[in-house]
Amino acid sequence: DTKTFDFKVADLSLAEAGRHQIRLAEHEMPGLMALREEYAAAQPLRGARIAGSLHMTVQTAVLIETLVALGAQVRWASCNIFSTQDEAAAAVVVGPNGTPEDPQGVPVFAWKGESLPEYWDCTEQILTWPGEQGPNMILDDGGDATMLVHKGREWEIAGAVPATTEEDSEEFGVFKELVRRTIAEDPKKWTTVAEGIRGVTEETTTGVHRLYELAKTGDLLFPAINVNDSVTKSKFDNKYGCRHSLIDGLNRATDVLIGGKVAVVCGYGDVGKGCAQSLAGQGARVIVTEVDPICALQAAMEGFQVARLEDVLDIADIYVTTTGCYDVIRAEHMTKMKNKAIVSNIGHFDNEIDMAGLAKVPGVTKTQIKPQVHEWTFENGDSIIVLSEGRLMNLGNATGHPSFVMSNSFSNQTIAQIELFTKNGDYDKQVYVLPKHLDEKVARLHLGALGVNLTELTKAQAEYLGVDVAGPYKPEHYRY
Ligand code: NAI
């Protein structure tokens, strides 16, 4: 029987190339593959209808096919306009057993280089299911799908979408337009979708931040699991993932020699720590900017100079923002940078670098060097190179984090989906992290592939420490 379903990707003929990459990625994703085996018979996600909004990469393809292997139905979009790998998207639509003429896989709505209206259309598509039943789970990265459900419902109940104002970013204006259109088409759309959702699992720092805000004001509509703050996510993906993919993005975009250059890392949280290490590993002289005295002291102890951005503009060659904050690098900074300085962001949203302000500098011109690499030339003839229009450059200019580290993140995602879907009644409309024994389980699933031999506690040693021989080994407040 031929399945027909709706989807929108760049080119299905890329599926074979995508499938080869997925096959190699599976080998590097032992956590996900172990979960497929563990839950093959039980099918804990049977009945789950997951709306996924997360960078549509090769690694995400392995996540999607794991969710399907556990019984879920899935619709997918990317959570960034530049982050899709078109061959991965094609392979997921075609599926392991389909052909481009007869796709048998999963509906994906994602391609590299979406416009903002297309981006929000794709996000709407994952929440708009054919037939009677809508989605009952969200898997989110950055919180856009969750925001669409919450704001859509709020504005639907209020009877109108607030007018778009000067203060709105371009993106938020486009978002409002989408909600306006969808409510006009179906005045109960978002109320109905919201009622069906049992929970959301959120991938990243920025999305988690949004969820805690909603919970604080009592506006969170369903339970949420904060996947980001599993130790095996933020202390691995954010740190070691960025340690790998930051310089990958820099190299693919510009191929400038990093050694000997002065590189500024704005923010020294988990992402900043990985970025600083990766630049230092290439021989760059790294300067960190921070607002938090603890993180600033950590950077200093690692041997990095900690300074204010204003004070290093005349010496720095490479900039990367990692703060999750906004307006960190502003036009007044960019106009004072060295000629051909490279400016990039690896934080979730594009507002860390004030791109709108840059475009308004009198006399500035923009030249495309290649897709996602632009030279902005000022009146005096000096220019700066901006990567991915200020959007996260490791996914815009390269292919994001490598499989092995994403296997950790996505094992947490899979376990969190199972947890929220199968034990929904145990959770209130709050934000939760996974229990430590599951965090330790995710780590355990990745040890064998690296040839790690764990030491086992004796019973007496375990008693001495006051822990179980099988773990968990640390109290909740331990920071790793
Ligand atoms: P974090 O909270 O651990 O670190 C952010 C740091 O920036 C904090 O130490 C904070 O004090 C500092 N900061 C805030 N405002 C600042 C400012 N104006 N100037 C200088 N420093 C400032 O967060 P984490 O986990 O490092 O994530 C950072 C961002 O990266 C988030 O948006 C997150 O969603 C995103 N992310 C991106 C990934 C990627 O692959 N591109 C992977 C993981 C996270």
In what order do the strands lie side by side in the largest sheet? 9-8-7-10-11-14-13-12
Round the Cα radius of gyration to an integer and report it. Answer: 23 Å
**What ligands can be seen in this structure?**
1,4-dihydronicotinamide adenine dinucleotide
The poorly predicted ranges are none
Computed structural class: alpha/beta
| Termini gap | 51 Å
Beta-strand content estimate: 5-15%
Largest sheet: 8 strands, mixed
Care to count the β-strands? 15
Provide mean pLDDT, rounded: 97
**Shape, per Cα inertia axes:** globular
Helix count equals: 19
Helix content: 40-55%
Protein name: Adenosylhomocysteinase
Pathway: Amino-acid biosynthesis; L-homocysteine biosynthesis; L-homocysteine from S-adenosyl-L-homocysteine: step 1/1
Main location: cytoplasm
EC number: 3.13.2.1
Describe the 3D structure.
- The chain has 19 helices and 15 strands.
- The model has no long low-confidence stretch (mean pLDDT about 95).
- The chain is globular and about 65 Å long.
- It has helices at about 15-25, 30-40, 60-70, 85-95, 115-125, 145-160, 170-185, 190-195, 205-215, 230-255, 270-280, 295-300, 310, 330-335, 355-360, 395, 405-420, 435-445, 460-465, and strands at about 50-55, 75, 110, 135-140, 200, 225, 260-265, 285-290, 305, 320, 340-345, 365-370, 375, 385, 430.
- An 8-stranded mixed sheet has the order 9-8-7-10-11-14-13-12, with helices on one face. It has a 7-stranded parallel sheet with strand order 3-2-1-4-5-6-15, with helices on both faces.
- The chain starts with 14 loop residues before the first helix and ends in a 15-residue tail after the last helix.
- With about 475 residues, it is α/β, with parallel strands linked by helices.
- α1 packs across α4 (about 85-95).
- 1,4-dihydronicotinamide adenine dinucleotide binds near residues 237, 267, 268 and 270.
